[in-house]
Write a structure and sequence with these properties.
single chain, alpha+beta, Arc Repressor Mutant, subunit A, five-stranded mixed beta sheet, 10% strand, globular
Length: 334
């Protein structure tokens, strides 16, 4: 199974949701493991682990609609910069299209789209892992968040025309009816929220077009250097681990909330290994240092987590054909 990554901000509100349903969140080992991995809300965790956590939370609380309940403990802030930009967008269409465009910056394992058919706007969410892991709780969570985002950006009393769910009709449909206050359809192809497209071009109240322009440019620049593939994000995490001095595979797997073997299997499916990615990150950092810094090679080897300079020099020579000192001389001469 191929895994993806999701921002740790997705864990926001889970503890309070579990407590509100009369259960003890400390009973979930996976929750404490993922929380330990989340150094901050910009950290990344395993998407499959997150989906499993939602399912375990539903079982612990004996609440089949746990995802729906969790949505009331989260808000647009879990999207970070993207959520702030959406609030400054000139209209709903722009905000929702930006959500679709930059969603990989929040969640690699799902896609969002917005289309219009015969005057009806169709906001759609598709999980890339569907059919492999239980996604019912994730679907309900996203549906509830979509409702609240629309009410935040448009009007507090708004309800969709129809919400289509890709899972079976729940035994107790009342929580869904109360939450959405609109017709509901189940066993659909994917989560789809349908509403009158006429509101898409209505202005968002209190939005600041100037701020929107500035921060949208900021996010666009981030996205240009942002890798939305699994291996790219593992390399991003390795870079973070370098700053802590612990770049072991156990450390990086822990930051994802998975074990060493799981990470190794995931990377093997991408035809690479932790060692390969680690060396790539190290050598990229080494080349930048050699070109831009006058610091010693001993200091560089220490920064990159090598036990001593000779080990770094040998690894660099194997990859580049010359020693670090020779590489610096060759490239600074150009």
């Amino acid at each position: 199974m191929t895994d993806y990554l999701v921002r740790a901000s997705s864990l926001s509100g889970i503890r309070s949701a579990i407590v509100s349903l009369g259960a003890d969140p400390d009973e979930l080992n996976l929750l404490t493991q993922l929380e330990a991995a989340a150094l901050d809300e910009e950290s990344w965790i395993s998407y499959s682990s997150f989906l499993t956590l939602l399912q375990e939370s539903a079982q612990l609380t004996d609440c089949p609609h746990f995802g729906l309940s969790l949505s009331q403990h989260q808000d647009i802030s879990i999207l970070g910069t993207l959520g702030y930009i959406m609030q400054q967008a000139p209209n709903l269409r722009t905000a929702l299209l930006e959500l679709a465009k930059y969603f990989a910056y929040h969640n690699q394992g799902a896609k969002i789209s917005l289309t219009v058919e015969k005057g009806i706007a169709l906001w759609r969410f598709d999980c890339e892992l569907e059919g492999i892991l239980p996604v019912t709780q994730q679907v309900d969570l996203v549906a509830g968040l979509a409702l609240d985002v629309m009410r935040l950006l448009w009007t507090p009393k708004w309800s969709p025309d129809v919400v289509y769910f890709p899972h079976a009709t729940p035994v107790d449909i009342k929580p869904y009816q109360k939450r959405f206050d609109c017709p509901l359809q189940f066993d659909w192809e994917s989560l789809t929220v349908a509403f009158d497209a006429a509101i898409l071009d209505q202005a968002i109240l209190d939005a600041n077009p100037q701020l929107h322009s500035v921060f949208e440019k900021y996010l666009r620049n981030i996205a240009a250097s942002f890798s939305d593939d699994y291996c790219g994000q593992i390399k991003h995490i390795i870079k973070h681990a370098l700053s802590t001095g612990d770049i072991s595979i156990e450390r990086v797997a822990g930051l994802l909330g998975v074990n060493k073997r799981t990470l190794q299997r995931q990377l093997a499916r991408h035809n690479t290994s932790y060692k390969d990615l680690l060396e790539e990150v190290r050598f990229n950092a080494a080349r930048r240092y050699l070109l831009e810094s006058n610091g010693s090679l001993t200091n560089l080897a220490d920064m990159l987590g090598y036990s001593e300079l000779s080990v770094f020099s040998s690894a660099f020579r194997r990859d580049h054909g010359v020693s670090p000192r020779q590489w610096r001389q060759q490239h600074l001469a150009h």
